[in-house]
């Protein structure tokens, strides 16, 4: 199956572009978000947010790939912010890449020595205090 948004669609569960999910979502598989998630996502595999997708908070042990909007994310491995992304919030990950053209307003913490619980609390507080701005293009 081919998807214009991301080749991750070939191996991921997909939350479609018309989906609106409110609450906490937990996933144990690759996940592609094309719709809107108001709440937090905790998952153990790779997470991709498509060009029109929006997510409030992410707690991702593996890689996160952003093409859309978000307010906060934490990953134990890496975060890649693609050129169409609009991020207003905090990122906590040992490796962070922001592509040219992306819009980012917030803080990036790449210090892996921070206490995980403290970092989660910081991100939760930051997500409540920040607003998503602008549209993904």
Portion in beta strands: 35-45%
From the alpha-carbon coordinates, what is the Rg to the nearest angstrom? 13 Å
Alpha-beta classification:
mainly beta
Query: In terms of per-residue confidence, which ranges show pLDDT below 50 for 5 or more consecutive residues?
Result: 1-6, 119-137
Shape: globular
Note the total helix count: 1
Helical residue percent band: 10-25%
Largest sheet: 8 strands, parallel
Distance between the termini: 23 Å
Instruction: Give me the strand/helix succession.
Output: EEEEEEEEEEEEEEH
Q: What is the β-strand count? A: 14
Give the averaged pLDDT, no decimals: 75
Tell me what the structure shows.
- With 137 residues, the protein is mainly beta.
- Helices cover 10% and strands 44% of the residues.
- The protein has 1 helix and 14 strands.
- The protein has one helix spanning 116-129; strands at 13-15, 20-22, 25-27, 31-33, 36-43, 47-49, 54-60, 64-66, 69-75, 78-81, 86-92, 95-98, 103-105, 108-109.
- Strands 2, 3, 5, 7, 9, 11, 13 and 14 form an 8-stranded parallel beta sheet that branches. It has a 6-stranded parallel beta sheet with strand order 1-4-6-8-10-12, with no helix packed on it.
- The radius of gyration is 13 Å and the shape is globular.
- The model is unreliable at 1-6 and 119-137 (pLDDT under 50).
């Amino acid at each position: 199956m081919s998807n214009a948004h991301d080749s991750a669609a070939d191996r991921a569960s997909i939350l479609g572009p018309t989906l609106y999910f409110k609450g906490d979502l937990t996933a144990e598989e690759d996940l592609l978000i094309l719709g809107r998630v108001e709440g937090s996502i905790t998952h153990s595999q790779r997470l991709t947010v498509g060009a029109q997708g929006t997510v409030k908070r992410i707690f991702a042990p593996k890689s996160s790939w952003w093409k859309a909007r978000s307010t906060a994310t934490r990953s134990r491995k890496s975060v890649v912010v693609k050129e169409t992304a609009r991020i207003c919030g905090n990122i906590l990950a040992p490796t962070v890449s922001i592509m040219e053209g992306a819009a980012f307003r917030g803080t990036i913490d790449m210090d892996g020595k921070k206490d995980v619980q403290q970092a989660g609390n910081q991100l939760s507080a930051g997500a409540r205090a920040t607003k998503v701005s602008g549209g993904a293009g």
